[in-house]
Amino acid sequence: MRENTVQTQSNVYLESENITIQPNEHYKEYSIKAGNIEISAEKSYISSGLIYAENIKIAANKIVHSGGEAFALDSLYVNGITSIQNSHQGIFVGSNVALTSQNTIINGIFKPWNCQKPRSSSQFGSNVHHPKDEIEIGSGKGIIKDFINTCKGSALLTDWSKSQRTASIFGFNLSLSAPEIINSNPYIKQRKEYKDPTVNMQITDSNTVSISAENAMVIHAKNALKNGSGVIEVLNGNMSINAPSINNQRYFIHAKTHTKHVKKPLPHICTENGFWEWMVDMGYDDVMAPIDYPEMHEEVRDIKSKCSKIKNTTDIIDEQYISALSPVGRMLVAGNLILNGNKILNEASNFEIWGKMNGSLKEIKSLGLVLKEKIVQQQITQHEKRYCSRRVFGACLKRKTERWTTTSHQLIKHDVTAQFPALFDINKANINVANGKITTGNITFGK
Known about the structure:
The structure is a single chain. It is built from 5 helices and 25 strands. By secondary structure, it is mainly beta. The longest helix has 17 residues, at 295-311.
């Protein structure tokens, strides 16, 4: 179906090997509007159109809801055996909404960028450098390097637009069931070089990808529930999660370390002109000064020693900064949360339970990310020692001078410059954590 409309007060049944509803992007009419809609495809169901009914049932081996809109006044049931993918402003809405798959449900886009062939013949090259003093965290960190390696040749890595990333699943009551359920918002701001402006995110940037229920939400994920920079929320009721792994993270954070060596400015007296001016002021500029003023030797040695120390002192400054940042991941339950699983990972994101939290877990990790600035003062000192290398009958016949260099380091500063905290806020918890594996705090990195 392209620019065709099916409207009836009765029921609509569509059954085929493949079903595609793809109207022109400027087409604003209903693709299907009926009393009830049932769609069954043996292989794939692809939709970027608008379907509207009292009740909607969609079943296919693979469901690609790329810009599609499914509005059900009462119940919406979607069954994608191998996968359900909802993106590009795709939206599922109903009073009672149920999505189920034997493999994955993906709301949003999991890939970090769009890999596309260029329209012109120009080439695109990219060098990826991985220094030691860096860290990558987030739900998308594992696929980013692999994705860059697969998008090669003349292909271009382009950011997803907001409309492409936008994906929504809304219901008064909402049920999701699949081995792996992913809510993914690959919004990445980059600071490609240290000299570029700092990157920041607003908390509302997470709203682009949302799974939201007004009254109740039930999630069954055999393997994992993953929220990367999106929102999973129940606005006025309870949530139940049955999943061995619950990850609430930013999609991607890449932090690096910028190192610079700073020499201290020399005082004027340590310059050639400044030293001569001091000699004149002290009256040591006369040619007979070394004889007339023996104290001059001590003062000059002291000045030269201090100047040498300043010349050989370097501040090594290690400043950690964010080179890539995604919005905060948010999980919110206005009522009570019932959990049955193994572990929760809340990484530089928000996990808020306004009511009670009940159930059992083996591990809870809630970790933020901290950036620091470290200044180490490096001092290079030249040493020399004269000694007698040959004696005859107690008399020194030959002398030598031994010279060596030592380097010392002193920590001057090691302060926190930025924080990306993990908020794990529970009004009242009645949770059993086996073996007491509860970890809260901050992730740090660097030498």
